[in-house]
Amino acid sequence: VFLNKAYENENSNVNTNTNADNNNKAVLHTMRMLHVLLSVL
Description:
Elements: H1 2-14, H2 18-40
């Protein structure tokens, strides 16, 4: 229960920056996938 509460608090804090974080994650993910594809070739 304590972990669940801490997790909820973490989520509520994160939600303020969700859009910016998601954009950054999407870019990083894309770059990572490109890097993996290039290294495979």
